[in-house]
Design goal:
By secondary structure, chain A is an alpha/beta fold. The first copy, chain A, contains nine helices and 17 strands. Chain A has two domains: 3-124 and 292-318, NAD(P)-binding Rossmann-like Domain (Rossmann fold, 3-Layer(aba) Sandwich); 125-290, Dihydrodipicolinate Reductase, domain 2, CATH 3.30.360.10. In chain A, the strands form three sheets. A nine-stranded mixed sheet of chain A has the order 16-13-12-11-7-10-9-8-17. A six-stranded parallel sheet of chain A has the order 3-2-1-4-5-6, sandwiched between helices.
C-alpha cells in the first residue's frame, strides 16, 4: 500500500518533493497546495493525477491524504504543520523545523499527543556520503572523534529574513546531529559573525561547538566568498575522514594517518615531539549514486509504515533549533559560550536578526 | 660596506640564517654560536671564514660583529637579545620575539634606549606572495577589507612547551599585522581550542579577531589534520584574494567577483536577494621566485644602513605577542573576547600552557 | 515570426532538442516523430501543442513545419535528412552529419540544389567556452597557433557500432574546425588505436593532425579510463589557453607565459637554452552561463531567417567526416599519415569497424 | 667493505651523485673529475677526502677507484665509459646510456668481455612510486595491462643538441621498460613531432608504442606547455593506476573500476553497451620518502657486491636507445611505425636532429 500525500509549497524546494514523491513506489501524490495556484499547476503539469489548490482545507478534507510534506517559508512551518497534525496527518517539514525552539518543541508535543509521525527534512543526512560517514563514525572506523571542522562558503544569496548562520549552518548542525552518537552531542555554542557589507545581518559566521571528551566541532559559513568550498574534516583517533562535497570523484577520503601520544618519550630537544606519527594509505570509497530526497521520502514512508521514529525526527529538528538559538544568543553577547542540552536554558526568541 | 654578523643557534632555523647571511652581498657572517659546538661546526663547514663558539661573550668581544641574528628556543630570546643590544649590537630575532608580552616590550624599550635596530623575523612577510598581498590591500585593489580567513592545518609536531596557537598562529598574526594598515588592526581576540589526544595543550585552535569597520579575521590552526592546508582568503568590497600557499602554479588568485548591497531592491519572494552579484575574471599574478629569508636579511641590513625601522620591527613583534597572550587568556576563559590595543589590558603571563 | 519545427528521434538527444526548441522564442515545435510513439508521447507530455507520430510523411505533410531537427542513430541521418530536404525543409542534423563522407557530401549538394539550410549540430561549438576560445584564436590573443592538445577520456559506453574515435573525436574535430581559421585546418590524420578488451573496435585512440605552418593537433580519446579528463591546451606564440571542461570555476585559463626563440643567443654550455622565457599572469575569464543547445537552436533559426550559412554548416559536418574517414583508413594501415583537404583522396567506406 | 668511487662531471647532475655517493654507507667517493677543475672544487668543498682533477687518467691510476659514475654530456658517455671499463672499472652512466644504439651495444659487449658491471642511471625507476608501480604491474594487482598513457609537459629548456623526444621521453621509456615484464615490451614506435617555434628540432612530440596482446603505450612530451603535467595512467583488466608525480599527497592512486566485456549481452538499443562497469574504491597507497638517487647508488653497489646485473643494466639502456632511434626514424618518415626488438632493424644514426 502506498502512502497518500500532499505537498504544500510550490517554490524552490516543493517541485523537488513533487518529483520524488511522484516517482517513489512507496508514495502517491494527490495534491500540490500553494497560494499561487497557477505556479502550482505549472509544477504538476508533467504528473498525472495531482490536483492543485490554494486552500489547505481542501487538501485536509481529502481522506486519501495520509501525510503532508511542507516546503514553505520557515516562518509558516509551525502553523501549517500544526494544522496538518491536528487533522491527523503525518508531517514532513523542510528544515528548519520551525522558526523558534519553542515552536519546534510544541510541534514535537503535538505529534506525540496525536500519534502522528513528525519528520524534519534534513536532506543532507540522506546523501550517500553522509550515510557512509555516520556508519564510519558509529562502527569505530574513525576511532574516538577528536574534532569536526566544517566549511560551507560561497557567493550566496544574502537572505532578507535570516542571517548566514540560520541559512547555512542548519546543514552542518543537522549532519553533526546525525553522524555523532547521542553521548557526543555538542554541549554549547559560541558564535562570531560579521556584517561587513551592511546587510543588517551576519554574512560571515563561525560556530564553535565543544563536544564531550575534549573534542571540538567548528563551522565556517560565509555568503561572501568568491570561491565555493564545502568540506568537512572529521578527525579521529584511528583515522581521519575528509568529505569534499564538490569533488566529483573523491567525495570521501579516509586517511589512515594521524598523531599518537607516546607519554614514554623523553627527548630533551626543544622541537621534540611527544607523539608519534602513523602514515598509512588513503582510501576513497565508492559511493552509490542516489538522490538524497529520494531517501528522505523513503524514510518518511517507511517510518510511518513501521510505526517508528524516522532517522531525522522532530527531536532532531528541535536539537538543531536549540543550537541555532544558542548561536544567536552567543552572537548577541560577543561570542560568549552558550550551553545547550541538559546545561542549556533552552529559551530563546527564534530565528533572525532583531 | 657589508654588515658584520653573528648567528646564535645551530638548530632548525639557524642553518638557514647562516646560508642566507653568507650568500648576501650586504652581510658578512663571522660567527655561529651554539652550546653544541660540534653541531655548529658541521653547519658552517661549507662556508669559509665563519668561526664557531659556545660562548656568546666571545662573539660580542669581536668588534667586526655589528649585528646578531638569534634563532634559539623562544624562552631564551629575551636574555640573548638583551645581552646583544646592551653590547651595542643590532638584533634580528626569530619569531616569536619573546615568550611574553612584558619581555617583548622591554626589548623594544632597550632597543630605543641603546639606539640599535630590533627586528622580528616574521619570515612569511618577506615572501613574494605576502609582499604582493600587502600591496593589493594597501593600494585599494581589494577595496574595503571585509574578512580575512586563514587555515593552517597539517599533521604537525606536537610541541613540548607551547600549544598549537603559539606554534602556528604567529604566522597568521604577523601576516595580518603586515598586510593591514594600522587603523585596521584587530581590536580583540576570542580563542577556542581542544586537546582531544591528551597532549596537555591545545592541538586544535580557532582564533576570531574582530577588526574595525565591522570586519572580521579568523584563523584555524591544527596539528592533527592528515591533509595539509595553508590558505588565506581576504574578502574585499572590490575584489577578493585567495592565497593558497601550497599551489605550485597559482599561489595568489584575485577574484573580481562579489556581493553588492542594493538597498533599493524590493522583492517579495522569500529567497529574494538584497544584493546584486558581480561575476568577473580571475587573475593569478605571476610572482617572482625568491627566498623569503633572503628578503629578511636584506631588510635588516638595509634598515640598519638607512637608520630606519625595518618593516617587521620590534613593535610588530610586540603586537603579535599581545595577540598571542590575549588568545591564551581567552582560551582560559571559555572563549571570552579579550580586547587588545588601546582597549587591551596588555598584561599577561606569557606563552604556553600553565 | 517563429520557425515551425519538428524533431525526429525521442532517444538520448531528442528530448534535449524538444526542450530547447519549445523554450526558444525563435522556434515553435509542432511534432516529435519516433517509431516508438509511446516514448515520444512521454517526452512531449510537459509541452503543449506538440503532436507525436511514428510516420515522417505525416510530419512533412504539415505545412507549418519549416524545419526539422534529426536526432536519430547516425546510420539513418542520410536518408532522413534527404527526405526532409527534398520536401523543402531546412535540416539540423545531430553529429556526425552522416555515416560516410560520400553521404555527407551528397547532403550538402542537395541542400544547395534545394536552397535549404543544412546545419550540423556540433553542440560544443555553442558553449560559452568554445565561443570564447574561437574569439581568442581569431583575434590574435594567442598569437600564432603552435599546437592543440586535446584529451577526452572517461569510463565510457563501449558502442556497438562505432569505435572510440567515431564516438568521441567528432567533438574534438568539430571544435578544431570551429576555432581555427580556414587556412590552419588539418592537412592530414594519423591514427593509432587499441582494443585491449576484445570489444571488436578501438577503445583507446590517438589522432595526430599536422596543421599548416609547422603546427600540430593531437587528440586522445579513451573509453577505458577510470578518471575523467576533458582538457584542451592551445599553445600560441603570445599566450597559451587551457580549457578544462570539468573545472566548475576555472574552465578557461589564459597563460601569458611561453618560450621565445632568440637566435642571437650563443651559449657554449650543453644545457644552454636557445630560447628565453616569458612568465606572466594567468587570467581565468568569466564566462556566461548558457546552455549550448539553446545557442544551436538560435543559430539555426537565425541562419534561416537571414538566409546565410550557419556557423557549423553542412560543410563543417563534411570536414569532420573527412577527418574521421581518414582516421579510420590510417588505423587500418598501422598509423600511416592520410592526407585530407586538397591533398586528400576523399573517398572512404564510412564509419565503424568492418 | 665500501665501494671506492669517482664521479666524472660537475655539471647539473654530478653534484647530486657526489652528495649521494658521499652519504651512502656502501660507497666511498675519492674523486670528482671535470675539465672545469675550479667548478669541481666548489662542488666537493663540503665533503672531506674527495680530490678533484681534470684528468681522467689520474682517476683511473688510483687503485682505490673500483667504480666510476659518469654524468657528462651524452655525446661523451661512450668514450668515457669505454675508457673506464677498459681500465677494469664498473660504470654507472647517466641516461641516455650513449648517443646511439650502436654505441650502447658496444658498451654492453665491452662490459661483458671485461666482466665489469654496466648500469644505466634511469633515476626514475628508483623512486618509491615507480618501484611500487612495478610491483603492482608484476604481481597482478592491475591484471592484464591494457594501455599506458604518459604525459610529461612543461615550459622546458629547449636543448641545443637534442629534440624533446630525446630529452624527455627517456624517462617514460625507461619507466615502461622497468615496470613491464619482458614479454610485454613495445614492438614498435610511431613518432610525431612539431617545431612550431623554429628551434630546429621537435619541441612537441608524441610517441605511440604498440605492446603485445593488443595493448598500447603512448607518451606526450612537450617543452612549450605553460602548465606542468607529469601523469601516467596504466590501465589494467583488474585495476587502473594513476601516477601524478606532481601531487604532493596522492602520487599514486589505484582505481578499482573499469570496463568488462560481456559478450552475452544482446541489446537492441543503439547506445547499448557490450560491457559492464565495475565501480569500486580508490586507494592512494602511502609511499616511503626516499631520494631516488640514493636507491641508484645502493643498487649499483649491491649489484657489484653480489655480482649480478643491476635492475637497470646496460641492456635496459640499450633498449631505451633502440626506442629513441626508432622514434627518430619514424619522425623522419611522417610517423610510420618502426618495429623494434626482434622485428626491428636496430640500425640508426643516433640522437638528435640532422
Amino acid at each position: 500500500m502506498t502512502l497518500g500525500m500532499a505537498v504544500i509549497g510550490a517554490g524552490y524546494w516543493g517541485p523537488n518533493l513533487v518529483r520524488n514523491i511522484s516517482s517513489s513506489a512507496a508514495t502517491s501524490l494527490h495534491w500540490l497546495c500553494d497560494l499561487d495556484v497557477e505556479r502550482a499547476a505549472g509544477v504538476v503539469a508533467p504528473y498525472a493525477g495531482v490536483a492543485t489548490t490554494g486552500d489547505l482545507d481542501e487538501v485536509l478534507a481529502d481522506p486519501r491524504v495520509e501525510a503532508v510534506a511542507i516546503a514553505t517559508p520557515a516562518a509558516t512551518h509551525f502553523e501549517l504543520a500544526l494544522a496538518c497534525m491536528e487533522a491527523g496527518r503525518h508531517v514532513l517539514v523542510e528544515k528548519p523545523l520551525a522558526s523558534s525552539l519553542a515552536e519546534g518543541r510544541k510541534l514535537v508535543e503535538v505529534a506525540q499527543a496525536r500519534g502522528v509521525t513528525l519528520m524534519t527534512d534534513h536532506t543532507y543526512c540522506y546523501t550517500p556520503a553522509v550515510r557512509r560517514i555516520r556508519e564510519m563514525v558509529q562502527d569505530g572506523t574513525l576511532g574516538d572523534i577528536h574534532y569536526v571542522d566544517s566549511v560551507r562558503i560561497n557567493l550566496g544569496l544574502v537572505q532578507r529574513d535570516i542571517d548566514v548562520i540560520w541559512d547555512l549552518a542548519p546543514h552542518d548542525l543537522s549532519i553533526l546531529d546525525f553522524v555523532l552518537p547521542a553521548e557526543l552531542r555538542p554541549t554549547g555554542v559560541a558564535a562570531h559573525g560579521a556584517d561587513p557589507i551592511g546587510a543588517g545581518r551576519a554574512c560571515v559566521g563561525y560556530l564553535t561547538l565543544p563536544l564531550p571528551r575534549s573534542a571540538l566541532a567548528h563551522a565556517h559559513v560565509n555568503w561572501l566568498s568568491p570561491t565555493k568550498v564545502r568540506t568537512t574534516i572529521i578527525g579521529g583517533s584511528r583515522r581521519t575522514l575528509v568529505w569534499d562535497d564538490l569533488s566529483p570523484t573523491q567525495r570521501l577520503s579516509l586517511h589512515d594517518r594521524g598523531v599518537e601520544l607516546d607519554a614514554s618519550l623523553r627527548d630533551e630537544d626543544r622541537r621534540a615531539a611527544l607523539v608519534s606519527y602513523r602514515i598509512g594509505d588513503m582510501v576513497a570509497p565508492a559511493l552509490p549514486e542516489s538522490e538524497a530526497l529520494q531517501g528522505v521520502v523513503a524514510e518518511f514512508a517507511s517510518a510511518i509504515a513501521q510505526d517508528r521514529a524516522p532517522a531525522t525526527d522532530g527531536h532532531a529538528g528541535v536539537r538543531v533549533l536549540e543550537l541555532l538559538e544558542a548561536a544567536s544568543r552567543s552572537l548577541d553577547s560577543a561570542g560568549a559560550l552558550v550551553p545547550v542540552g541538559d546545561g542549556g536554558a533552552g529559551l530563546g526568541a527564534g530565528m533572525g536578526p532583531k
